[in-house]
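User: I'm writing a short methods note and want a consistent example. For Mth938-like domain-containing protein, I'll paste the sequence; you return only the structure tokens, no commentary, since I'll be parsing the reply automatically.
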Amino acid sequence: MSAGVVIREAHFPGRAPVEAYGNGGFRFADMSHRGSLLCLPSGIYGWEPADPLKLTPQDFARVLAEASEIEVLLVGSGTDLRPLGADLRAALKQAHISADPMSTGAAVRTYNVLLAEDRAVAAALIAVD
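Assistant:
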């Protein structure tokens, strides 16, 4: 009996700089991922927010679960800067996470710099074409 194709949740168990972005995905650690990403202290995860244009605290459950290891969260909101909603800002503030929304390109560049400085940084990156 054949098991068929097994689809697993996308996860890279470590921290790595993002080497490239665009065409609907990202490259990091000599791998590529199609779709959005969460870059957390515990690793890099595939991420599918319910509505990329209207992020909610539920979209950040994994971030909030690792709040004790995160000081700064960079939120790459696609090609344009989109402010975070009041409920999301409040949830992150309560978890003592400073959130900084910006375009995905700016978030990738800033994440790489802060990661190289060994800072307690995380990033939520919405894929861009």
